[in-house]
Every structure is written in C-alpha cells, then in structure tokens.
Amino acid sequence: MRIIAVDNIEDMGEAAADLIIEKIISKPDCVLGLATGSTPLSLYIRLIRAYEQKTVSYKEVKSFNLDEYRGLEQDNPNSYHYYMKENLFKYIDILPENTYLPSGTMDADEAIRTYKELLKDHQIDIQVLGIGTNGHIGFNEPGVSFESSVHLVELDEQTIEDNSRYFESLDDVPKQAITMGIADIMAAKSIILMAGTENKKNALRCVLEGPVTDECPASILRKHKGLTIVALKNVLNEISLNLL
Ligand SMILES: N[C@@H]1[C@@H](O)[C@H](O)[C@@H](COP(=O)(O)O)O[C@@H]1O
C-alpha cells in the first residue's frame, strides 16, 4: 500500500490526476474505473484541465462507473449518469459509447447481466474510489460478500442519510442501487482510494489497520497490491501519527 498525504482537497485531486494522466500517456486505450460523490470532484477538475491544456486525450479511454441508483432516469440530476456527464464527460473528448454505467432503469436482472458481461471483457487499469462513512466502496454495504460481482443493493440507512444532502428529503433518496461487487473492484490492476473529510476517519482506519472484515467492506483493499491511498494529512495524523 502506498499513502500520499496531502494538505487539501485540491492537492488530493492533483495527486490522483497525476497517476491517471501518467497511465493514459503510457496506455492511451486504458480502462478507468470511476466513482461519484463529492470526493472525486477535485480529481475531475484536474482531468478536465489536463485535456484543455492538451496534456492528454481521452479518445481511446474507456470508463466504467461503480454504481447507479435504481429508478433514476439518466437525466435526473441525482443520477450518477448525470453526475458523470456534468462533472467530467461533457468537458473532455471521451467517446460517449466508451463510457459505461449500470442502468438504473432497466429490469434489475438484465442491468446486472449486461454490466457483468461488459466487465468480463475489460480489465480496469485504475479504479478510483471514494469511501462511505460506514466503510462502503461503490455501494458495497457492510455485510457484502468479498466474492461479490455486480449486484442489486438495499442501501444502508447510514448511506441513505449521508447521501440525503443531495436530495430534497430523506424520502426522495432511492433505497436501492446496482453496484460493481467487491471482486470486480479487487480485479482492477491498481486502485486509488481518496478520502478527504474528517467523517471518513473511521472508515479509513479500517483500511489502514484492519481487521479485514465485511463489517467494513473497504478493509479488503489492504490486500490489494496496487492500492494507493490519497488522503488529507490531518485525517491521517488523527488515525496514526507514525504513518507519516
Ligand atoms: N456510491 C457512492 C460512493 O462511491 C462514494 O464513495 C460515497 C462517498 O461520497 P462522498 O465522496 O460524497 O463522501 O458516496 C456514494 O455512496
């Protein structure tokens, strides 16, 4: 495991973007695993800037997102399809047909089968991850099997509450999602885990110190040989001073 300690959110985005841009330059047709939430926004700003400055082109890149809420149309501002379009895809030259997310509206079994098939044919070179306050990655909630592939999830109460800040009310937050499984995430060649806020401290601690348990799904990441954690210095310091 490699740890990059940064001073602020902007530096966190820059550190993650540097790793991704380096990969795209060496492998222009690489496959990126992408995440949503507030954490990767500073990364996407950097990736857009790199395109504008002609440092990089995404023409041959493919992307797979971790998850999507059930029941939200692609043009719903709270859907992850919408998030990706508005925060990254529309500003860069990635081809729309090379950007994949699970369907939120297709019959669930069909959506799962379709996404599994697509993932079977593509190994992810770099998987970007945020982390939930309960240790979820993607929407793999506590209790998930480490062997899981793409599946339908009943969202944890904690997750619904955490994510309700984006919705008008708690009742508007979808109760289900389709997510890549833990096995899909662990199959990526390398993983960048980003953690930028104080409320992620406990979840991050379980990645850094273990134990590996499905009660904290992210704890399995410590077994991945290509894991890089990019996190705020003050959050890391609070977990364990001797890490830095
Ligand atoms: N499914 C996403 C996760 O992939 C993300 O890591 C998490 C944290 O979001 P934030 O970065 O906004 O704290 O939110 C959602 O639940």
TrEMBL record:
Database matches in Pfam families: Glucosamine_iso
Residues spanning the membrane: none
Keyword DNA-binding tagged: no
First-tier enzyme category under EC: hydrolase
HAMAP family: GlcN6P_deamin
Family (UniProt): Belongs to the glucosamine/galactosamine-6-phosphate isomerase family. NagB subfamily.
Main function: Catalyzes the reversible isomerization-deamination of glucosamine 6-phosphate (GlcN6P) to form fructose 6-phosphate (Fru6P) and ammonium ion.
Entry protein name: Glucosamine-6-phosphate deaminase
Organism: Dethiosulfatibacter aminovorans DSM 17477
